[in-house]
Amino acid sequence: MKPLKVGLLVNGAFSNKYDYELALWARDQANIKISHLIVHPRRDPKLGRLANIFLTQDPYVLLSKILFRLIMSLENLFLKRSSIYRDHYQLFDLSKLVDEMVTISPIVSKSGFVYRFSAEDIEKIKALDLDVLIRCGTGILHGDILHASRLGVISFHHGDNRINRGSPAGFWESYYEWPQTGFIIQRLTEELDAGEVLVRGSFRTRFLYSLNQAHLYTKANIHLKRLLNRIALTGKLPSADNTPNPYSSILHRTPKLHQSIAYGFKVLKRMAVGKIPRILTHKERWGISLVSSRWGKAVFWRSTEVKIPRGRFWADPFLYSYQGRTFCFVEDFVYKAKRAHITALEIIGTEVVERGIAVKEPFHLSFPFLFQYKGELYMCPECFESGQIRIYRCVEFPLKWELQTVAVEGVSAADTLLFEKEGKWWMLTSLDESGTGDCCSELYLFSSDSPLDTNGTPHPQNPIRIDACGGRNAGLIIEGEKLFRVAQRQGFDQYGQGILVYEIKKISESIFVEEFVSEINPAFRRGLRGTHHLSTDGRTTVIDHVR
After folding, report:
1. What are the backbone angles phi and psi of residue 528, rounded to the nearest 5°?
2. Average pLDDT over every residue of 453-479
3. Which of 64, 178, 183, 277 has the highest CB neighbour count under 10 A?
């Protein structure tokens, strides 16, 4: 099978690190070949980047651009401290990775946004016999360029086009403190504002514009690679998302002078709010509350908050009924050790008794998910730090457990659920393939004949969700034949702001469908900032929360 032949539409041979990483990755793929750089300079190449900024007669616009550049420079100093994002604003030479280069000249509209190309330039591109073009440069491409390769032009849009269109990518989400920053990958069409959406997703918005943008680019690039692999395997584009998508907001552009000033004050305030608790030696402290009720009828302001020992916090509670007694396994975080183990509690009425340590490892443990298989009790705790998905078998309830198997090795995974349905065992887990350590958005599904198998089959819809609202598990509720997936909702620069509940409607080796059922917010007690886990046994419901 011939490799997928790809051309990159770029402004110049020097491009950002994300285009460079894409080309570097493709060089190691047997089924993908980036054969050509197709360069369409957007400005006079004799002028430098800064010189082009000053090509304006409006002093207000000029000052706006200067101030925004200053903001980017200051934020770049912050990014330099990060091993992941330090070269976010750096340019790299793509010609070192892609041998062939073709230069074409855009015919730019009066607005400066829409790019068309001459018939001669289009013929140049068609002669390259490319399978697909990827738009990596600027300009809204229109006209025959959209049909110059077999599959057309794939374009990144950093910003979910349902709620935010325009630029700079990641700025307005941070400015307005929106909880999510989205992206789409689409095939461009003749309709300027309506491409065919192939991939859509969102991640938790960071407090700083440049950090938010760098995180967005890093995470989204993974999904472009996945898409190219899928196209190379099938020889065609995946089905487009044809959900009706009216856009009712403004077209966002580079911030004006007063908006840049306002943003600067917002950042100073956010930094102060983050620093003051540290100066006062205050820490975020998770805890749990319980209520004698089914989850669907629970009134959480009536719940009893459990008193937690000093120097620790409890979170991620999982209830389990054993010989007429109610137990609760929790993440038990020790501040001094800066990591957690799994502790077993017993609930007696409204009283909670600590029974002891159930599982402890030299790495952090949390989310002690429990399930039964062939008459035995198993636990699959989150052990992200180990790079594994581990399953422990209960030897002597509740405190003696032994490692049964490492289900998945060499993976960044969080909050894994295992359950049986339709004659198969299913694993729902949140994965991070970007190296950022962010497992809060991308939910993956695998199937097998046994929960102890180490070679689960990936679901064809993977990732089944790319969404900071609902992309990370927060529990599982089984009511007869009904399955409810409890999920986290992330907030603006905040982990675990709320809980969402979905009912799994269909699950098979070809389809996964879930429907939103309910939302739980941390408004049931004064001082709470978030909640991110729920468990029930039908009689008692326990929820965690942070203050």
Report:
1. -80, 140
2. 97
3. 183
The angle at the Cα of 467, spanning 461 to 469, to the nearest 5 degrees, equals 130
**CB-based contacts of 298: which residues, under 8 Å, 6+ apart?**
291, 536, 541, 543
Secondary structure (H, E, C), 139-175 = CEECCHHHHCCCCCEEEEECCCCCCCEECCCCHHHHH
> For residues 340 and 365, is the Cβ–Cβ distance under 8 A?
yes
d(CA 356, CA 137): 58
Q: With 0-12 CB in 10 A as exposed, 13-18 as middle and 19+ as buried, what is 439? A: buried
Q: What is each CA distance from 21 to 36, 93, 397, 441, in whole angstroms?
A: 15, 11, 49, 22
Q: Is the dihedral of CA 357, 361, 364, 368 positive or negative?
A: negative
State the SS3 of 15-30. EEHHHHHHHHHHHCCC
Q: Output the pTM of the full model.
A: 0.94
175-187 core/surface letters (b: 16 or more CB in 10 A; e: else): beebbbbbbbbbb
Strands, E assignment, 44-159: 91-93, 100-103, 106-108, 114-117, 132-135, 140-141, 153-157
Residues 401/395, Cβ–Cβ less than 8 Å: yes
Could you count the other beta carbons within 10 Å of the beta carbon of residue 197?
A: 19
- C-alpha angle 120-126-130 in degrees, rounded to nearest 5: 150
C-alpha–C-alpha distance, residues 226 and 411, integer Å: 16
User: How far from each other are the two terminal CA atoms of the chain, in whole angstroms?
Assistant: 57
Phi and psi at residue 382, to the nearest 5°: -75, 130
Predicted local distance difference test score (pLDDT) of residue 234: 95
pLDDT (tens digit per residue) in 273-330: 887 777 676 788 999 999 999 999 999 999 999 999 999 999 999 999 999 999 999 9
Burial class of residue 248 (count of CB atoms within 10 Å of its CB; 0-12, 13-18, 19+): exposed
Q: What is the pLDDT of residues 371-388, one digit of tens each?
A: 999 999 999 999 999 999
| String of DSSP letters for 469-480 | EEEEEEEEEEET
Query: For residue range 381-430, what is the model confidence (pLDDT) as tens digits?
Result: 999 999 999 999 999 999 999 999 999 999 999 999 999 998 999 999 99
Beta strand 251-252 with 534-536 is: unpaired
Q: Which one, of 171, 270, 273, lies nearest residue 214 by Cα?
A: 171
Report the pLDDT averaged over residues 26-41: 96
Query: Which residue pairs from 11-15 have beta carbons closer than 8 angstroms and sit at least 24 positions apart in sequence?
Result: 11/39, 11/40, 11/41, 11/42, 11/137, 11/138, 12/39, 12/41, 12/45, 13/37, 13/39, 13/93, 13/94, 13/95, 13/101, 14/91, 14/92, 14/93, 14/94, 15/91, 15/92, 15/94, 15/136, 15/137
Distance CA 332, CA 405 (A): 23
Taking a C-beta distance cutoff of 8 angstroms, is the pair 366, 315 a contact? yes
